[in-house]
Hints:
By secondary structure, this protein is of the alpha/beta class. It has 9 helices and 9 strands. Helix 6 crosses helix 7 (151-163) and helix 8 runs antiparallel to helix 9 (220-232). The radius of gyration is 19 Å and the shape is globular. The mean pLDDT is 97.
Amino acid sequence: xxxxxxxxxxxxxxxxxxxxxxxxxxxxxxxxxxxxxxxxxxxxxxxxxxxxxxxxxxxxxxxxxxxxxxxxxxxxxxxxxxxxxxxxxxxxxxxxxxxxxxxxxxxxxxxxxxxxxxxxxxxxxxxxxxxxxxxxxxxxxxxxxxxxxxxxxxxxxxxxxxxxxxxxxxxxxxxxxxxxxxxxxxxxxxxxxxxxxxxxxxxxxxxxxxxxxxxxxxxxxxxxxxxxxxxxxxxxxxxxxxxxxxxxxxxxxxxxxxxxxxxxxxxxxxxxxxxxxxxx
Length: 280
């Protein structure tokens, strides 16, 4: 198991792998790894000769009042888990390594990134697309694996790679859930027992809406009303958005198109911000 911390060493190592004809799979993460991340690494290991996991808490995707400073970090544990799960390399650069003094170049996707997370976190996706573009340029993987839980992030990155002709396949892995249905997230560790119990309403509302669609419901306003009502019953839960959109463009849906429409929810559970979604 190898840990690399500088861009120059990572570039040289990845170049040597490609020269040997090795297929590189990349799993970008911000660390604090959980079973959701590990499922991405396992999937990458099935497709790649060498799996590289990036562990980088990216400052440019956090807003000024968000949780960058308290975001959980445990690199030693992350490296150990990566080694046990099928990765060969962890790339763990510092902020100064990725954004040296004088850094001023950013990547913006200006359509898919606008609604939902983009509306409530205006600078978030600029940070995501910039750091992912940098990782793709540094490592030049054959493919990169992302989780369906971050559905809008996946759509934004797919659009970026298509628009900028990046020769990287984007592989999407299914959302992994805790017992009870809560989508796995590094921020779940912030939740108290009572907060965790109320947060289960998010996945329950998603599954209820999915069931309505399976029984023939196609009206967006009806589905959103049901989800809003369910979440409104929980004292600690405050909805940021509950929207039905096209799963690729993130444009609002007029009616549900099975397999094409996505119900996305973001909510505060007290001070903890959670997101989740389901394809209807």
